[in-house]
Write the structure tokens for this entry.
Amino acid sequence: MIAYLAARAVNIASWLRAGLREPVFRPVALRFALGLVVVAVVLGFGLASSDPTLRVVLWAVAVVLDIATPFATVAALSNELSAISSSKFPERFGLLTMIVLGESVTGVLSGVSGLHDAGRLTPAGVVQGLLGSCVGFALAWTYYDFIARRPPRPAILTALGWVHLHMIVIIAVAATGAGISAAIAASAGGGLDTPARLLLTGAVAVALVAIAALETTLARGPDEFTHPRWSPGLKLGAAAAVAALGALSSSTTALLAMVLAGLLVPVVYGVTAWAMATPTDTAAPAQTATPAQTASPAETATSTASPDPRAWPVPRIRPTADAHPGAEK
């Protein structure tokens, strides 16, 4: 918590510095800084409290305030905010999610090594380890196939929702790794207990619901091959199936197999939708011949005009003097 408060202090200083250097941006910066200060104060009171219940309540209030601050700022000062650039979002959050997805692998290794150390590693334990690994890989496939390849829509509120939904995905993925480890370890005790079962099925279900919600915030290009409603709907259905069927299982192997079956629903849909996409949906646009390409050899030799910069895919490599009036020719 102290490290979190220290990081928040850096955030507050950054917002205040931005407001000091850019007067136009100052109202937005002050709102963000004020919200962060209030959150830090509430967290500090929670940390100092000796009552566990009060501490949890204060921390929950701080989380709500932390989430509400940017939304309230955007709602009040939307006209003073510049357009948001979300092109880097998928790359940066994709890397963060990749790191957290390693928790599922860690969970498998932890559970199997626990069976080995207890002298109870059997062929069933090896199968459970393989199923647990497949659960982690299927969850990663679902995220990267549907979410990580597309940025969110450029609206600020949509981008904020995209960021906060990623936090839910990350927490659920980390909990999935812990659930896999707990489920494998529980098999060494002779049976799968209820907390381990609910942790695994609940974490996977929450991850699928969050991924489905994330999919509704993404920009859709003309070559997008997934259905805007069926694709998120399949993930919601898979989440409900995992939560319902997982609650009925008393075997670790059967539980992991059911969870994997639920995760394979969006995986198979994504592969099928991509395979059934028409060539015009996925092919790059054909190159358009420019006047320089269709001209006769004599015209090409005598022409001094530069190629049309609008012709695809020839980019403008060097800025012209017209783009920078102060530049010398």
Remarks:
- Residues 2-80 form one domain.
- The chain has two domains: 2-80, 89-277.
- Confidence is low (pLDDT under 50) at residues 281-286, 288-329.
- The CA atoms of residues 246 and 258 lie 7 Å apart.
